[in-house]
Amino acid sequence: MRRAELVTALLMAALSIYLMWKSAELPIGWIPDEGPGGGAFSFWLAAAMLGSCLWIVVNWVRRTSPQSQSTRRFMEPGVLKMFLLVGGGVTAMVGLVHFVGMYGAIFVFLIYYIRYLGGHSWRTTVSVAAGTPVVAFFFFDVALRIVLPKGYLEPWFLPLYDIFL
Amino acid sequence: MEILTLLLDGFATAFAPINLVLVIAGVSIGLFIGAMPGLGSVNGVAILLPMTFLVPPTSAIIFLAAIYYGAMYGGAISSIMLGIPGASTAVATTFDGRPLALGGKADKALIAAAVASFFGGTISIVLFTAFAPPLADIALDFGDPEIFALMLLAFATFVGLGGEDIPKTIFSICIGLVFSAVGLDIMSGEPRLIFFDIVGFMHGINFLVLAIGIYGIGEMLWTIEVNRGQTTMSKAVISVDRIARNLKDLLGAWKTGVMGSVLGFFVGILPAAGATPGSLMAYGVAKLTSREPEQFGHGHIAGVVAPEAANNAASTGSMLPMLTIGIPGSPTTAILLGGMVIWGLVPGPMLFVEETEFVWGLIASLYAANLFAVLINILCIPVFLWMLRMPFTILAPLIFVLSLVGGFAPTQDMHDVWLMLIFGIGGYLLRKLDYPVAPAVLAIVLGPIAEPALRQSLLISNGDMTVFLTRPIAGPITAIALVLLFLPLARLIVNRLKRSG
After folding, report:
1. Count of domains forming chain B
2. Among A71, B7, B165, B355, which is most buried by a count of CB atoms within 10 Å?
């Protein structure tokens, strides 16, 4: 926990400096008759972020914050495994959208999660995994007219478009 | 009298068939969301907001407000039955609700929670009806310095009363505000903070991307980590006879109910305070003023009544500044406010002048939501208990899926979905280190209001910062904000002095 606290504070400090530099692409000073420049607001806020990060580091050195005293691990092995399985699964789902579209990605993700992480029966798995995209299709594409990405599965949907849209 | 006429008109809006159906649906969904450990009103409202594009804005807000309301009732169910707060707002309910359930009086605790919620809801809505129009009247005179001073107060509340790590709270506020500045600078029209020249940043970072990322994906990861252990559900015996007896027992706790409701309402009004501190404070005061404080924590009925009355009252209270001034009183109302902006409703005093039908329709719908919530809650206790048994390994992936499509729907851009994922995972990792996430969400919603207000004020005063201190309304607000900001520092010094003395 102690190391994670310091590493995060330093990373966030780097992010703050990047944001300050990025804000400075626009004027950050006072422009006569126009008031503060376009970058001023975000520049000073990013500076405040940097200040907070330094404060966190000071607390770390003095061991005054709970994290800087903690000897627990940032992620226990079990938690890390769960985080990688779940977070990785969600990331893979978002990535899959570009190939098999939203509905394909949802189907695959639900099978992965419910069957492999949840250990439910195939019957439960398939009914939820197949039912969800169908409900979502009628809700988004048909009722809301928000067309969700279809990826390479687009041709499969053409007949459905003809019927419902 | 005028208020009564407006309120009656409001009831006509609230009881339009579509709105009534949405109130009932919203309350039921809210009860379920509130009851599910790990999901609270803010998660429900953030994840479901994109689903409301189907109905007109008024109905959409009524639906979301009903979810908010229902979630306040629902939180108590898992606090009592599982010993896990269904939402952070129901943390205080576990203190005495769980011991009651373990002692075989689960039904007593559940009924007390429902009735207290109804009580708190009713008192606060009446207070709301009385306070909203005059407050909106005063707010009509607000200029840019006043608006910025109020924003400052909202953020100062987090720092002064949040009770969390102070530099981390400040960091969270600032990063939310910086993210709100991404996109086109409204005043000069120039693009700014376009990271790595990715075109997706040109339209700015939608607050929903951050809200769904944090409250959908981040919260689920967090809940999966926290709830790995098995929980045991208490048994509840429910019969008409027992309900009647429990109701009779409750009569003795009416004073606690009134105290919780009024306290909750006023804490809810405070910008950024919300229902969680409201319910914790009500519990504290109930214990302090009780004749038998030693019974608290071992299953005292007043320990359930006070926080439950308070969290419902606070949820209504937090809508007051959102509607009248345009400053949300809680993270959930911050998201509601963002939703209103999407629908072209500008929150603030003008709403009461220009959109009377909407405002009073919403207020009247709160009365309706309160009534339906208590009825559905008591009648459907067995159904909710059954639903609590739904395996988390089915609910969690469905929430992830909802977050995915919810993140895509508002802008229909995959860039936003990736960003949401990054915010979700980043938010989860930061939260493990005690970085509070709510201030960032509030900040990204308030940023687009705060920045122009600040710049305009400075333009009026020619760069003189004292403009926030010298104006008659802005001055006191800024002063309170500064006091709150330096409160932790003062506390530190006092503690030091005590130790050395």
Report:
1. 1
2. B165
